[in-house]
Design a protein that fits this description.
- It is a single chain.
- The chain is an alpha/beta fold and about 300 residues long.
- It has helices spanning about 40-55, 75-85, 100-105, 150-160, 175-190, 205-215, 225-230, 235-240, 250-255, 265-300; strands at about 10, 30-35, 65-70, 90-95, 115, 135-140, 165-170, 195-200, 220-225, 245-250, 260.
- The protein folds into two domains: about 5-145 and about 265-300, 3-Layer(aba) Sandwich (Rossmann fold); about 145-260, Rossmann fold (3-Layer(aba) Sandwich), CATH 3.40.50.2300.
- It has ten helices and eleven strands.
- The chain has a six-stranded mixed sheet, with helices on both faces. The chain has a five-stranded parallel sheet with strand order 8-7-9-10-11, sandwiched between helices.
- The protein is elongated and about 75 Å long.
- The chain starts with 7 loop residues before the first strand and ends with a helix.
- About 45% of the residues are buried.
- Residues about 1-15 and about 20-25 have low confidence and may be disordered.
Length: about 300
């Protein structure tokens, strides 16, 4: 699949509500929120910083990035988002799926938020519409959840004998889970495949799923769109190899680690787009603050 065919950018980057802040920092700050651990995102962060640099901002030189990592514990996201919202950040980058974007939205109605989600942001309640997002959120929809049915079709073509397919989801991320199952079950019925849902939200639960898959005589496994599964790509690929189980997902990294195949957007392109959006929004905020400061200075004379 061509990586740019399934990337949709949402407009409204220039007209942001501003938070009045009494304290100004020498170096502006960008907040970055993600549900994973930093060591799992080295290549993606590199692309984010590279595209941010293309807009004129270099971390450590003229902008600071304040990172907050949930370490695969989604329950921590609301608190981490609230912490960033209390800081003097110009933009919050909500990376890693719907749960992150939803937590960021709940934390602030004023600070601009750049999100990346794999399904319709209107359906998720993040924006009002694609044409007029409204509010303080914009971002990238890379349509991975919408491609779930297509992944099932491709799996059937590659493994025509597969009659029972397991679907791995993370129950802690209800938005992604619901999106995956919504399109998957009708598609499975249409091509005569029986699907069985397996839940995992920890490394130990992933091991338990593969043990259950062996007992249930599942023919193949489809991994749902979930940041946690991307972070555990090596474990998933190794377990699939051990059980001789065809594995398909949206994440290219899982296929590169040894899974059968992936079908979805190039996630590095998503991080590039987030970097561009973040830089543009940051500049728009800085320009507006400068105008307000000059206006206030003139009023004081």
């Amino acid at each position: 699949m061509k990586r740019r065919e399934f990337i949709s950018l949402l407009g409204g980057a220039a007209a942001w509500p501003l938070t009045a802040r009494a304290q100004q920092q020498a170096m502006p700050v960008i907040g970055f929120l993600d549900p994973r651990s930093p060591e799992t995102l080295n290549d993606r962060l590199r692309e984010f910083r590279r595209s941010l640099k293309e807009t004129g901002y270099v971390e450590g030189e003229n902008v600071s990035i304040l990172y907050r990592w949930a370490e695969n514990d989604l329950d921590r996201l609301p608190g981490l988002a609230a912490e960033l919202a209390r800081r003097p950040v110009a933009v919050i980058v909500a990376s890693g799926g719907p749960a992150v974007a939803i937590a960021a939205k709940a934390a602030t109605t004023t600070t601009p938020i750049v999100f990346a989600v794999g399904e319709d942001p209107v359906r998720l309640g993040l924006i009002k519409s694609l044409a007029q997002p409204g509010g303080n959120l914009t971002g990238v929809n890379f349509l991975n959840v919408e491609l779930t049915a297509k992944r099932l079709e491709l799996l059937r073509e590659l493994v025509p004998a597969a009659e029972r397919v397991g679907v791995l989801v993370n129950p802690a991320n209800s938005a992604s889970t619901q999106g995956t199952l919504r399109d998957l079950e009708p598609a499975a019925r249409a091509i005569g495949i029986k699907v069985q849902i397996f839940n995992a939200g920890t490394s130990g639960e992933i091991d338990a799923v593969f043990a259950a898959v062996a007992l249930e005589r599942i023919d193949a496994l489809l991994v749902g769109q979930e940041a946690f599964f991307s972070a555990r790509r090596v474990q998933l690929a190794n377990m699939a190899a051990r059980h001789v189980l065809p594995l398909i997902s949206a994440a290219r990294g899982i296929a590169e680690a040894g899974g059968l195949m992936s079908y979805g957007t190039n996630i590095l392109d998503v991080f590039r787009q987030m970097g561009v959006y973040t830089g543009r929004i940051h500049r728009a905020v800085a320009v507006r603050r400068g105008r307000l400061a000059r206006r206030d200075a003139r009023s004081a004379l």
